[in-house]
Design goal:
By secondary structure, the chain is an all-alpha fold. The chain folds into 2 domains: 48 residues, Orthogonal Bundle (Arc Repressor Mutant, subunit A), CATH 1.10.10.60; 133 residues, Orthogonal Bundle (Tetracycline Repressor, domain 2). Helices cover 69% and strands 0% of the residues. Helix 7 packs across helix 8.
Length: 186
């Protein structure tokens, strides 16, 4: 039964993803998502509060579920690579999704879900006592903001496009260096 519930949720998510490639999010109705999935509206509401919750669940699936179990097991660079690969496989969806702005913006969803991953990473890997005046939450939000910028840049880059590998390397390079590494400042 649990497997079947998980599959239904996945079908709803994937049908919203497909609809967003063809239609503006604002024009998509819950009825359309249900019709594509072959279920009644009540089924949708068993899983999601509204279509924004459904959209956030796609982001959660792509960013958190696909990486959270690997935090602490894989090198961080591999986690970045895996996340960028998922985004690259769904690039048309991501281009459409970034058009969701305002109170429930897609970019905010990306940041919040990245913060979940960073919080878990710091929980498992943070050095004891190093700059302890900064909480894991603050650090997670800071790095989520940075990576959200990198993801948006990756999605909307112009020719020549950077590959997943080059984007991954850029992220690692920038995260591993401070402002003072790039300047002659005192």
């Amino acid at each position: 039964m649990e497997y079947r519930k998980g599959m239904m949720k996945t079908f709803l998510l994937e049908n919203l993803r497909a609809l967003m490639i063809k239609n503006m999010f604002e024009k998509i109705t819950i009825k359309q998502i249900c019709d594509e999935t072959g279920v009644i509206r009540a089924t949708f509401y068993n899983y999601f509060d509204d279509k924004y919750d459904c959209l956030n669940s796609i982001v959660y699936h792509d960013i958190v579920e696909n990486t959270i179990q690997e935090t602490g097991k894989k090198p961080f660079q591999e986690i970045i690579h895996d996340g960028l690969s998922v985004i690259n496989e769904n690039i048309a969806f991501y281009k459409a999704a970034y058009n969701v702005t305002g109170q429930n913006s897609f970019e905010d969803m990306v940041r919040r879900n990245l913060a979940i991953v960073f919080n878990e990473y710091f929980r498992k890997k943070r050095k004891d006592g190093f700059m302890s005046q900064y909480s894991n939450d603050l650090l997670a939000d800071y790095f989520a903001e940075c990576i959200a910028f990198d993801i948006r840049t990756f999605v909307f880059q112009h020719e020549p496009k950077m590959s997943v590998e080059k984007t991954e390397q850029m992220i690692i390079d920038l995260m591993n260096h401070s402002l003072s590494d790039f300047t002659n400042a005192d």
